[in-house]
Amino acid sequence: MEEGLGIGVVIIGRNEGSRLVACLESIPCDIAQVVYVDSGSTDDSLIQARKAGAKVVELNLDQPFTAARARNTGFRKLVADKDIRFVQFIDGDCEVQPGWIQAAARFLTENPKTAVVCGRRRERFPDNTVFNRLCDVEWNTPPGQADACGGDAMMRVDALIQVGGYRDTMIAGEEPELCVRLRAEGWQVWRLDEEMTLHDADMTRLRQWWKRARRSGHAFAEGAALHGSRPERHSVGAVKRILAWGAVLPVVLLLAAALISPLALIGFLIYPLQVLRIASRQKPRDRTAYEYAFFLVLGNFPEALGVLEYHLRQWRGKPAGIIEYK
Q1: Spatial contact of 132 and 125, defined as CB atoms under 8 Å apart
Q2: How far is CA 317 from CA 159, 311, 320, 321, 322, in A?
Q3: Is 153 helix (H, G, I), strand (E, B) or coil?
Q4: Residue 189: Cβ within 10 Å count
Q5: Strand, helix or coil for residue 294
Q6: What residues pair up with 96 in beta bridges, in sequence order?
Q7: What does the pLDDT profile of the chain (326 residues) look like in tens digits?
Q8: End-to-end CA distance of the chain
């Protein structure tokens, strides 16, 4: 396959500033077309995207904004204007690493049953904050055939059309949900041992991390509601773990302390013990291992709020609102 031929790029973003400029500059010049979908930016994002030669689409904000809807909108624009075989989705706070697009397109060409390929996403500034380091650990998943991808991935256009694209209404977790439907149709998802993108989480405050974890809980709950039946059981295990550690156990301990004996509060020692257990399984067992374990355990609480929020909204018949952490 000739480099760049039949490959398009869809970038989504809002108020990314210099991060968007870096993202646009990282796209190889031989790409057939770049579409940038903007979700109500108040900075110069639109100007910078047009200056870089991208086709700009301003998302209709009369409908609730979701990254899934932005990606679908950009995808439709891309395939309407050009003959595209593969599409690289990328978030506007990321940069494509040299050689990634060629490697991903080559893999898709040589493996016709593969619908999605992704690679190693890294944090640009992992040492700036503990929250950035946690993201870098989160992105470090093993190569090989996988169940899901993240926001940055290259996809086969025919496969994406076959399953109807992303689910517009999902406020988070839309990528794993899409992969569930692709795999149900016989397609494969692969993680390559290749550098893919640099990401700038720009998380400097605990409040940002908390909101991001809450959003994850919401995504797990919706994923389980959509695909929790057998054989997939999508996100069911995660939801059970979140509710057990983040809701049921603390409520039981507090009730026991109030109704039986204050000594029941000793039971909360299970949380630091769980931190030590998780950290002991990490390699290397360094500072990052203990940070990861601590926030993994602490994350059960905002994630539980996200799970309960999803079910409360479903019960009340209200659509989910986007949960932004930056």
Answers
A1: yes
A2: 32, 10, 9, 13, 16
A3: strand
A4: 23
A5: helix
A6: 197
A7: 444 569 999 999 999 989 999 999 999 988 989 999 999 889 999 999 999 999 999 998 788 889 999 999 999 999 998 899 999 999 999 999 999 999 999 999 999 999 999 999 999 999 999 999 999 999 999 999 999 999 999 999 999 999 999 999 999 999 999 999 999 999 999 999 999 999 999 999 999 999 999 999 999 999 999 999 998 999 999 999 999 999 999 999 999 999 999 999 999 999 999 999 999 998 888 999 999 999 999 999 999 999 999 999 999 888 777 777 77
A8: 39
- Polymer length of the chain: 326
Taking the C-alpha atoms of residue 105 and residue 84, their distance in angstroms, rounded to an integer, is: 12
For residue 301, what are its two tokens? 């609480």
Query: Could you tell me the domains of the chain?
Result: 7-203 (3.90.550.10), 224-316 (no CATH)
Q: Which residues contact 121 (CB under 8 A, 6 or more apart)?
A: 94, 139, 150, 152, 196, 197, 198, 199
| Both structure tokens of 183 | 């795999």
Q: Hey, what are 99's tokens?
A: 């050689």
Determine the 3-state secondary structure of 188 from DSSP: strand
Give the three-state DSSP class for 35.
Answer: strand
Give the phi and the psi of residue 323 in degrees, each rounded to 5.
-110, 105
Please name the residue ranges forming H helices in the chain.
18-25, 45-51, 67-81, 100-110, 130-139, 157-163, 174-184, 206-227, 236-243, 249-259, 270-280, 287-298, 300-316
The phi and psi torsions of 196 (rounded to 5 degrees) equal: -110, -60
Query: Of all helices (H) and strands (E), which one includes residue 90?
Result: strand 86-91
Q: What are the phi and psi torsion angles at 318 (to 5°)? A: -105, 140
Neighbours of 28 (CB within 10 A): 17
